[in-house]
Amino acid sequence: GDSWGIFTFLCAALCNLPALPALNCTEELGAGQSIQKTYDLTRYLEHQLRTLAGTYLNYLGPPFNEPDFNPPRLARAERVPSATVDLDLWRGLTDNARLAANYRAYSRLLCYLRALDGQAGTAELRHRLGHFCSSLQGLVLSIAGVMSSLGYPLPVGPAGPPAPPGTSVAPNDFLKKMDDFWLLKELQTWLWRSAKDFNRLKKKVPPAVVTLRLEARGF
């Protein structure tokens, strides 16, 4: 009957579909998936850092592990990328500019964290720092993936000016601990703000869009 004829026609069409070079299936869902993955990773790192920061500040000892310790930022700490930008100014940036700032900052922060990993005094702390560094490296790569999927070029150069020669090592133990304290503090702020950035961005980009594009070749 007619139903059997229609079924036979559909089967034949499906069997021959791969042989039609003019029909391309383009999946434009990479950006949405990359943004969701990056958002999830920032939230995971936020959670992971809370435990790591508590452990590391206890390792530094007082006054760094006291809840009300809030020292002024020293000139040495300015080498660490700061997230203390006015929120209205930050939101006024383009998506590309915010992504580039995140990419540069986490690349720089990762270098400092790896230095901490080599200086930690206990095996447990080195293990925690190593695990966190691996996760943060994943975030850097994930942000790069988001930028690529949105058609943005990766930024060139560091997040800020390089440290002047001879200033890589703190002149005394207290200032070294202060550097570590500010590194963790800035990292917490970056992750908090990045989570908000990617949460807003994922609302802009559809999570999954599949389009069929018919290319005229010889028609």
For the largest beta-sheet, the strand count, sense and barrel status come to: 2 strands, antiparallel
In sequence order, what are the helices and strands, one letter per element?
HEHHHHHE
Strand count? 2
Mean pLDDT, to the nearest integer, reads: 77
Which residues form runs of ≥5 with pLDDT under 50? 13-29, 159-167, 209-219
SS content category:
mainly alpha
Family: Belongs to the IL-6 superfamily.
Protein name: Cardiotrophin-like cytokine factor 1
Keywords: Cytokine, Glycoprotein, Secreted, Signal
Organism: Nyctibius grandis
Secondary-structure map:
Layout: H1 2-16, E1 23-27, H2 30-60, H3 87-91, H4 95-119, H5 123-149, H6 173-204, E2 210-214
Antiparallel strand pairs: 1-2
Helix pairs in contact: 2-5, 2-6, 4-5, 4-6
InterPro entries: 4_helix_cytokine-like_core (IPR009079), PRF/CT (IPR010681)
Subcellular location: Secreted
Function: In complex with CRLF1, forms a heterodimeric neurotropic cytokine that plays a crucial role during neuronal development. Also stimulates B-cells. Binds to and activates the ILST/gp130 receptor.
Structure, described:
With 219 residues, the chain is mainly α. It has a single domain, classed as Growth Hormone, Chain: A (Up-down Bundle). It has helices spanning 2-16, 30-60, 87-91, 95-119, 123-149, 173-204, and strands at residues 23-27, 210-214. The longest helix has 32 residues, at 173-204. It is globular and about 50 Å long. It starts with a helix and ends in a 5-residue tail after the last strand. Mean pLDDT is 77; it is low at 13-29, 159-167 and 209-219.
